[in-house]
């Protein structure tokens, strides 16, 4: 089967009712025919479901589909564990891999929740986070070589909100050379646009809340790994014991949303390219951050590892904070909301919304200036999106 066929494919229900669509199993436990069967399922002698936190058929179907998509066209197999959110996927993976005294080498422009998780929660457990410019490969290699306690290279590409990219292949190669692990947050791309396993990365995490679901009606996450035994024994065990399992209804919504993943990502990417080109030539715009533009500093590395450039872009308005607030209040067709990845176009002003509590100096060091606007370009008719941005940028 090809990529879009895998996305659209339904399960084959083997129950007598033969439901065409994957059923939701809203049950906390599963029953046994006999005590012997119960014992066999608990000891692993017989495959079967026992308790909802350990596994659920609706959740399993989504795990298998995403594992298949992340290894699509590659000569490898993966196993996925679905979780209650993107953050719980990240925290479950970190808790499985890392122990007191270990260090994480990562970038300064991670998803805000991940930075906070690393610095406050994991910091409290004795895991240290070292942030550096992961585009400086020589420096990264020197740091990894010099410090054996760096256990994990944790990556995000493209990264919020400037869409800076890091080279997956080069970084995974450094990790392998020194016998360390690598993991990447693939939320912005989905396996349709970028397959980190192709470049040798060990673990992938997603907030399925965003593009994989695509319709903004569930919160969930997933961890995917190619070390099947480690995924089945260690990662699954941490999920089960931390209780970060995904509920079957949110898994089912993700299943339904994913059927159109490929065609959504195609349309997101072509719309975003047109929006980026429109903004780039507009007199009220200082700078556009979109990896599809040849003028973008990360265009080459993005082209190397992404099939298309996705929905996410940001741009810098001339006129700073006042211009940013004026622009946001004129937006009419697009939606002002603190999320991304839905079928409708969503706009965020980081300086006054997601990053309002972060000191200006730290914000600006990460490219979050007062005039920066982030857009998750939707799949509507692009004329409506550009028309709205144009009127909000225009004279009055
Ligand atoms: C939203 C997001 C997360 C967190 O996901 P939740 O599902 O909200 O917990 C992590 N990484 C990225 C890149 C995100 O956009």
Give a structural overview.
This protein is an alpha/beta fold and 396 residues long. Helices cover 40% and strands 14% of the residues. It folds into two domains: 35-258, Type I PLP-dependent aspartate aminotransferase-like (Major domain) (Aspartate Aminotransferase, domain 2), CATH 3.40.640; 261-393, Aspartate Aminotransferase, domain 1 (Alpha-Beta Complex), CATH 3.90.1150. The chain is built from 15 helices and twelve strands. It has a seven-stranded mixed sheet, sandwiched between helices. A five-stranded mixed sheet has the order 8-9-12-11-10. Helix 4 packs parallel to helix 5 (112-124), helix 4 (86-97) crosses helix 9 (228-242) and helix 6 (137-146) runs parallel beside helix 7 (168-177). It is globular and about 75 Å long. It starts with a helix and ends with a helix. The chain binds pyridoxal-5'-phosphate (PLP). Pyridoxal-5'-phosphate is lined by residues 85-87, 111, 113, 185, 187-188, 207, 209-210, 219, 221.
Structure summary:
With 396 residues, the protein is of the alpha/beta class. It has helices at 3-8, 35-43, 57-70, 86-97, 112-124, 137-146, 168-177, 190-193, 228-242, 248-258, 261-280, 299-305, 320-330, 360-365, 382-393, and strands spanning 79-83, 103-106, 128-131, 150-156, 181-185, 203-207, 221-225, 285-289, 312-317, 335-336, 346-348, 372-376. It folds into two domains: 35-258, Type I PLP-dependent aspartate aminotransferase-like (Major domain) (Aspartate Aminotransferase, domain 2, 3-Layer(aba) Sandwich); 261-393, Alpha-Beta Complex (Aspartate Aminotransferase, domain 1), CATH 3.90.1150.10.
